[in-house]
Amino acid sequence: MPDFVRLRRRARFLLVLCLLFASLAAYGWFWRAPTGAGAATSGAAEEGDLEGFRKRISRAGQAQRLRVLRRLVRHGGRQAVARVIEMLRSARSEAVRVAAIEQLGALGSRAAVEELSALARGDQPRLVEVALRALGRCGSREAARQLVELLDIATVPRRQLFAALGEVGGADALAELTRLAQDTDEPHRRAAVEALGRTGQAQAVPVLRSLAMKSGNRALQRTAVAALGDLGHPDAQRALLRLARGGQSSVSTMLRRQAVAALGKYTSEEVQVFLGSLVKDEDRAVARAALNALGRSDSPLATRALAGALQNPRPELRLAAARALAKAGDGEGRKALLALVGGQQGAEAARALAKLQGPEARQ
């Protein structure tokens, strides 16, 4: 009898397991886009599925539509793109339309890019802006080509279009942004320079370095230096180090300070050591920029440099070092701010402490 019971339990277990695998297989088949010969014979079935989906979604509320959108993108495939586009076109709620546009950017297929490009040519500012961002997220050459074509349409917002070109990257986008950044007649030239910093490509470094040193436009120079910081490329780091070291007649004090601030986005040991050497710089603005940059790093080298700056004879630099350490959660920074409260920089030290939490701040 015990053997019979064990056999029955084992049979039940195997039956449940078979049913589970069958369900998973059917679920995967339902969402999988057909390929090869199967795609040629399933066109009518897909049309029928899409029609059925259209009827079901027409009765769904906003919350349910948003859940369906998220599920579609998780599964991906050609059917998912077609259904997201259907939801986008049939939706009356702006929230659903915005969500559908964002999901098309995540899917990134050719059909998704074509739909987004058509939306970017539309007359609804909110949807145009979201469509441009989504095209940038696609990251494909086709998306870059569509964005370049949009440059010829006067109604497309330039700043958002440039940002999307920087996000999508690639040779085509880089070439257009380089041209726009050097075009003195372009009203949104600084936006093109900012977008170059988002490309992450080494080819942008010579253009940005030249604009930083030779443009003659201080606002454009600051933007170019900041873009070198955003670029995150080793070549951009080397360019910023050269600017921050100065020593050239073409490098102004303002440019040097901006370069030091931009170096705060790089975390290499070379940068940390260099910034640490600047905390005693004769130019107080440069020293303060170095302290602020070090405060954005959690490396031991940065912490040691900031701790050493607490002994700086200049009170405003001691305050900058203490503030940077305190923001990083260092107890010495909090103590140093408390010590400064009764001195020349007392008001600023008190304001810095008020923004922190802990027993020292409550005192």
Can you give a write-up of this model?
- This protein has 363 residues and is mainly α.
- The protein is 75% helix and 0% strand.
- It contains 23 helices and no strands.
- The protein has helices at residues 2-31, 37-41, 43-58, 62-75, 78-90, 94-107, 110-120, 125-138, 141-150, 158-168, 171-182, 189-196, 204-214, 218-231, 234-245, 253-262, 269-277, 284-295, 300-309, 315-327, 331-340, 346-354, 359-362.
- The longest helix is centred in the first third of the chain and has 30 residues, at 2-31.
- The chain is extended, with a radius of gyration of 29 Å.
- 38% of the residues are buried.
- The model is unreliable at 26-48 and 359-363 (pLDDT under 50).
What would the keywords be for this entry?
mainly alpha, 363 residues, single chain, extended
Task: Give the SSE map.
Elements: H1 2-31, H2 37-41, H3 43-58, H4 62-75, H5 78-90, H6 94-107, H7 110-120, H8 125-138, H9 141-150, H10 158-168, H11 171-182, H12 189-196, H13 204-214, H14 218-231, H15 234-245, H16 253-262, H17 269-277, H18 284-295, H19 300-309, H20 315-327, H21 331-340, H22 346-354, H23 359-362
Helix pairs in contact: 3-5, 4-5, 4-6, 5-6, 6-7, 6-8, 7-8, 7-9, 8-9, 8-10, 9-10, 10-11, 10-12, 11-12, 12-14, 13-14, 14-15, 14-16, 15-16, 16-18, 17-19, 18-20, 19-20, 20-21, 21-22
Q: Can you give the mean pLDDT?
A: 78
Order of helices and strands: HHHHHHHHHHHHHHHHHHHHHHH
Distance between the termini: 78 Å
Uncertain segments: 26-48, 359-363
Radius of gyration: 29 Å
Number of helices: 23
Strand content: under 5%
Helix/strand/pairing category = mainly alpha
